[in-house]
């Protein structure tokens, strides 16, 4: 007798319309988080899931909740909160894909840094799914442009990340504006006390799902790290690529924009390099992978999402340009090398505050990761010399170059010049205006910066946190009436970066916290939080130190960015332009000047702004506190 018991996704009770999509996508069997989460979510139960990134959480909540969505009811029924706009976009796109054969399903993504107009138009159409970041969701709720009255389910994706970014109070506020009868699915890689408190407050008898991930690595992969100090990551990547003997290299970054920027930099320095991200059409992504396999590309710069399923035996080196957010992602990344019994190399760039994640990776993989010295300028220059000489020797073809030989003979016969001088001139023409060698004095500057950072770390010079892990202040600043100095403070860890002090038109009375300001600047300016300096918050304004020469378009975006329901209206700080009533003492202890605090998610390094920035906007009139 033939066994007709459903298997795979069909055994979980999903409808045919979803199963059809999964078959087309090539999904054969559910991952552990999917197998344990889908049945209770289909039954309408709350779920508290603990699993690392990359385990299939999006499908774990999207598939069952799509099955319960009413396509003929044009009102938001599912709200998904995500910590970053990148994740919000990714989740929204996944839901659109999964709902391919469910006619009438609308999905809208709302997040900071995007035009309100287009979001308003999409919300007016009555989408069944809304995916957004907490800040922008709050803005739409306060404006009355988002109605949660018909919400049937709320998803909190990467809840611990929202906690680290200072959004947990916003999440609680949003949940309080949803119907009491709604279903809640909370997913988190870790379960700190604050996340447990959210679960206890907002989830009803949840089904707990905990997935133990396998984190073992190939012993044929040599793992090293470089301690980032005193140099841009691009410079370090270039030095490694020029001195390491590699067949093909894969570089992992956190954002789509970083894939483009790093790839452009490596291309400009002579490497055949291509970006790989979710915005690149599938056909072009496949073409890039085929070129890598065929040896027509040296390097691919990719995000984790875009690199899923990529298997190229040529990859000898994996560079973690941005350290991953969890150990599982690290294992997945470096698994792209050391294939088919070959040896592989894995290098991770680590900033001072990221050493904890490095230790977590070592503990999870049960392998020590050795520190590597950055190749010196002398080593790089020697490699460049060898390659340039080889390039000249390879170009020596007497028959093919006969016409040029005749021209050189004419030059030598008609001009009193040495043949070596002519050859040197031709070599200079070949190289162009860009110097062949890098300045060896950069080694000394990098060593000095490294020593400073290591000394600070060994002395424990970690500026105190100005808030506890709930995102609220617990330490008060001095109750002086003195205003901030117009001169910015030096940026710890990057003293070479010139800073400018800016003022924003919101403060403590508006509910501003350091985490809100860091998140807004990091997202809207696409700026590594290492380069966000000193922050001080007063009653109705705040000051923040940013790199000198912020580009005018970036400043335009920052002025329009909304935090705590109000535009930042950022401008160069001048004591004479402080709003009335702004002379009160800071209501939050000054934020440390070294980038972000411990616990905040950071964005990948960006090139330092190059122009002189936009002129400061006009002085703002005194304003009253706006009530939420």
What keywords describe this structure?
single chain, about 625 residues, alpha/beta, Rossmann fold, 7-stranded parallel β-sheet, 20 helices, disordered C terminus, Helicase_ATP-bd
Describe the overall structure.
The protein is an alpha/beta fold and 628 residues long. It folds into four domains: 8-210, 3-Layer(aba) Sandwich (Rossmann fold); 221-376, Rossmann fold (3-Layer(aba) Sandwich); 378-431, no CATH class; 466-628, no CATH class. It is built from 20 helices and 21 strands. Strands 3-4-2-5-6-1-7 form a seven-stranded parallel beta sheet, with helices on both faces. It has a seven-stranded parallel beta sheet with strand order 10-11-9-12-13-8-14, sandwiched between helices. The longest helix is centred in the middle third of the chain and has 18 residues, at 377-394.
First-to-last CA distance: 66 Å
Question: DSSP strand (E) fraction?
Answer: 5-15%
Major sheet: order of its strands?
3-4-2-5-6-1-7
Percent helix range: 25-40%
CATH superfamily of the largest domain: P-loop containing nucleotide triphosphate hydrolases
Number of strands: 21
For the record, the CATH class of the largest domain is Alpha Beta
Biggest beta-sheet profile: 7 strands, parallel
Mean pLDDT comes to 79
CATH structural fold name of the largest domain: Rossmann fold
CATH architecture verdict of the largest domain: 3-Layer(aba) Sandwich
From the alpha-carbon coordinates, what is the Rg to the nearest angstrom? 27 Å
What is the domain total for the residues? Answer: 4
Poorly predicted runs are 1-5, 459-481, 582-628
What structural class do the secondary elements suggest? alpha/beta
Please give the count of helices: 20
Per the principal axes of the C-alpha atoms, what is the gross shape? globular
Main location: cytoplasm
Domain Helicase C-terminal: 220-380
Subcellular location: Cytoplasm
Domain Helicase ATP-binding: 38-209
């Amino acid at each position: 007798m033939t066994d007709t018991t459903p298997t795979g996704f069909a055994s979980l009770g999903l409808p045919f319309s979803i199963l059809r999509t999964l078959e087309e996508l090539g999904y054969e069997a559910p991952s552990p988080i999917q197998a344990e989460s889908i049945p209770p979510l289909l039954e309408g139960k709350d779920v508290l899931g603990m699993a690392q990134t990359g385990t299939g959480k999006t499908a774990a909540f999207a598939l069952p909740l799509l099955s319960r969505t009413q396509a003929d009811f044009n009102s938001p029924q599912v709200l998904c909160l995500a910590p970053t706009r990148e994740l919000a976009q990714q989740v929204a796109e996944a839901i659109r894909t999964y709902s391919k054969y469910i006619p009438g399903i609308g999905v809208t993504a709302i997040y900071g840094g995007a035009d309100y107009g287009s979001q308003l138009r999409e919300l007016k159409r009555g989408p069944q799914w809304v995916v957004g970041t907490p800040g922008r969701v709050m803005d739409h709720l306060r404006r009355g442009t988002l109605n949660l009255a018909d919400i049937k389910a709320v998803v909190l994706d990467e809840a611990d990340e929202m906690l680290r970014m200072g959004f947990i109070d916003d999440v609680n506020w949003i949940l309080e504006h949803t119907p009491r009868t709604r279903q809640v699915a909370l997913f988190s890689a870790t379960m700190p006390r604050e996340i447990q408190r959210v679960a206890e407050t907002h989830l009803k008898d949840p089904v707990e799902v905990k997935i133990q991930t396998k984190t073992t690595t190939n012993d044929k992969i040599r793992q090293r790290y470089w301690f980032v100090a005193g140099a841009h990551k691009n410079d370090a990547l270039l030095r490694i690529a020029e001195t390491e003997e590699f067949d093909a290299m894969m570089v992992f970054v956190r954002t789509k924009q970083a894939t483009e920027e790093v790839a452009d930099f490596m291309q400009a320095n002579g490497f055949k390099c291509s970006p790989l991200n979710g915005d690149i059409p599938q056909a072009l992504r496949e073409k890039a992978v085929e070129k890598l396999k065929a040896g027509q590309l040296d390097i691919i710069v990719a995000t984790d999402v875009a690199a899923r399923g990529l298997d190229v035996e040529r990859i000898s080196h994996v560079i973690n340009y941005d350290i991953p957010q969890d150990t599982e992602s690290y294992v997945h990344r470096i698994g792209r090398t050391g294939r088919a019994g070959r040896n592989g190399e894995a290098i991770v760039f680590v900033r001072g505050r990221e050493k904890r994640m490095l230790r977590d990776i070592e503990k999870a993989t049960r392998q020590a990761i050795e520190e590597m010295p950055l190749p010196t300028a002398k080593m790089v220059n020697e490699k460049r010399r060898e390659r340039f000489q080889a390039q000249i020797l390879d170009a020596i073809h007497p028959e093919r170059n006969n016409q040029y030989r005749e021209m050189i003979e004419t030059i030598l016969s008609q001009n009193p010049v040495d043949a070596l001088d002519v050859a040197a001139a031709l070599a200079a023409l070949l190289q162009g205006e860009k110097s062949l060698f890098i300045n060896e004095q950069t080694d000394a500057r990098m060593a000095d910066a490294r020593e400073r950072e290591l000394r600070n770390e060994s002395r424990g010079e970690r500026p105190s946190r100005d808030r506890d892990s709930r995102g609220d202040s617990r330490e008060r600043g001095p109750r002086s009436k003195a205003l901030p100095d117009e001169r910015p403070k030096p940026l710890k860890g990057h003293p070479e970066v010139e800073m400018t002090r800016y003022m924003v038109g919101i403060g403590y009375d508006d509910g501003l916290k350091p985490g809100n300001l860091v998140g807004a600047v990091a997202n809207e300016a696409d700026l590594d939080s290492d380069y966000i300096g000193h922050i001080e918050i007063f009653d109705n304004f705040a000051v923040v130190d940013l790199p000198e020469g912020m580009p005018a378009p970036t400043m335009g975006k920052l002025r329009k960015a909304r935090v705590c329901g109000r535009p930042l209206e950022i401008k160069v700080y001048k004591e004479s332009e402080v709003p009335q009533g702004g002379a009160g003492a800071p209501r939050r202890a000054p934020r440390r000047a070294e980038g972000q605090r411990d616990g905040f998610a950071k964005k990948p390094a960006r090139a330092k702004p190059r122009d002189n920035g936009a002129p400061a906007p006009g002085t703002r009139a005194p304003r009253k506190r706006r009530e939420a």
